[in-house]
Amino acid sequence: MAQTIDSKRLYGALQELGDIGSYTDATTGLVGVNRLALTDSDRDGRRLVTGWFKEAGLSVSIDAIGNVYARRDGTDADAAPVMMGSHIDSVPTAGKFDGCLGVLGALEAVRTLNEKNITTKRPIVIAFFTDEEGCRFGTDMLGSAVATGRIPLDEAYAKCDRDGISVKSELERIGFLGEEPIGPLKPHAYLECHIEQGPLLKSKDLDLGVVTGVQAICWHELLIKGRSAHAGTTPMSFRKDAGVASAKINLRMREMTASGDYGPDMRATMGAIRPTPDMINVVPGTVTCTVDLRNPDDDAMKRQEEDLIAFYKEVEKEEGVSIEWKRAAQTPRIRFNESIQETISRSADDLGIKHERILSGAGHDAQEWSHLCKSAMIFVPGEYDGISHNPRELSTEKQCADGINTALTTLIALANE
Ligand code: GLV
Ligand code: MN
Ligand code: MN
């Protein structure tokens, strides 16, 4: 008989954590969550969850990049642990589920094991990782990328937000600059449950997705310099309009996605566009903007990035502007471990949960751990087309429970290998 969690307790914990950093969206009246990494609200969320870890009898440690680990011993003290984790930082316009389900779901799994006096051979480590979203310090999966060796610690410490405040100083300020060194933790396996953040599972009437991998991601930050000038008196032929330059790049990205030249699943977004001086009657002199490229195919990603960079040069000539760009993040297509995917499928079958394989469109901490140990993910569907990075984000108690029940069965199997 499969073990099952207390879904009410899990959902209650998600609501309670979701109250930290909550705000009311001005246009919709919906209550969202803003727990941007290493802000006071992130600190408050971290304290709440760390307290819950301790109440569950787990030993808590914090590493040098502020990742928090909570360990439940196994019967074999020397065995490598099974890690379950995700993140509790958020984009500024979030719901209550992105990342939090993975962390609080892991906690609920451990609470269930504790209550039922179930021991495992391997230790279990629950973790939440610093700045998975990348919204504040410019690169995604920061904490897990440092822990697993992709990003050097000093490089991470030096990253700054828009106000020039560094990762290291914020870690110190909120009291989460930990002492555990980076490096020695090498789990036996890593498992993460997350909301799908898209419409596919719900549209197919599925209860769960067994995640096959994550598509490639590439982020650019652009500084476009033109010349600010009077909107009424400056003839069009005299302008160096940084706003038009950014618009051309944005439209070119849309054309590239529609062309099919980079496969059917290319995605491209200019999510941040900031003109200066930002005035109705002034031609924008500079624009800083971002480019987010995704593609499940590494070769297509390479071509789409090269072609876009070549287009920056064309825009420089056409608009008389200069474009400086830097790559802020880049991760390849990831394939998750096949045998864990099979264990997840079997666990879902045992629980009567309808599932299918699915590729992740979003980036996740699991992709970083997949470089160190066998790793896999479980997705649960969301309501409202699975909308996410939006206060309307919602997965029901049943949807969350299906994911964490499947994760619990999978966790028990992995922790006894
Ligand atoms: C993480 O949320 C991402 O941008 O994929
Ligand atoms: Mn997430
Ligand atoms: Mn997210």
Verbal overview:
This protein has helices at 7-19, 40-55, 100-115, 142-147, 153-158, 167-174, 200-203, 242-259, 298-319, 338-350, 365-369, 397-415; strands spanning 22-24, 31-33, 59-62, 68-72, 82-86, 124-128, 189-195, 208-214, 216-225, 229-230, 267-269, 273-276, 282-283, 286-295, 322-331, 334-335, 355-360, 374-380. The strands form 4 sheets. Strands 3, 4, 5, 6, 7, 8, 16, 17 and 18 form a 9-stranded mixed sheet that branches. Strands 9, 11, 12, 14 and 15 form a 5-stranded antiparallel sheet that branches. The mean pLDDT is 98. The chain is globular. 35% of the residues lie in helices and 23% in strands. α10 (338-350) crosses α12. Glyoxylic acid binds at residues 133, 140, 362-363.
